Amino acid sequence: MKKFLLAALAVAFAAATGFAHMVMVVPAKDGKAVTVVFSDNLEPDENVPIEKIGGLKLNAVAGGKVTAVEHKADKHALTATLPADAKVVFGSVTYGLYGKDKPSLLVYHPKAVLGGATGKDATAGEKAAAELVPVADGGKVKFQFLVGGKPASDAEASVTQPDGKKEKVKTDKDGFTPAFDAAGRYAVSVKHVEPKAGEVDGKKYDQVTHYATLVADSPKK
Description:
Helix content: under 10%
Structural class: mainly beta
Largest sheet: 9 strands, mixed
Strand content: over 45%
Distance between the termini: 50 Å
Oligomer: single chain
């Protein structure tokens, strides 16, 4: 029990500070399924039960249509089989409240792009409250952050490159991160705070903290 409580506190601290644990949708190599993890990397964290994000609503974009995707829960991950030709998988889940001085409602918006798709082909569109989009840039890849379909500037982003190197960046006036040239799989997260007060389960909050995440392979050169 003590070990579990310590792990829970570590996760809560990570969420509150913007470090480490994020909800990530990780595509299988064959592109036919995804695994959803709540972790500080792309592998399931065995110290974290998955129930907290079990309410995740997951969708896939395939053939130009958005289709709901059902997932199954294991102990430390969610798994889902994708419809044929899925290019984008995205979802949203409300995690809960954190913070005492200025309580915030924490919401995750995980997404994955398959097959090296970029730009319009890698966009979820109106159905996504917040999303990251990989965009090809002269043999490199950069990531655009959209809120309600519009670019969001000056947002705090963390980019994990294929070699595991992590870099903190901010989006420019058009919502873009700097471009990266390494080939392979990227994991990106970005923070957006919405000054919107409300109440959930009888508890009040002062703002909503959104984390959009993305797992995507660099486009083929």
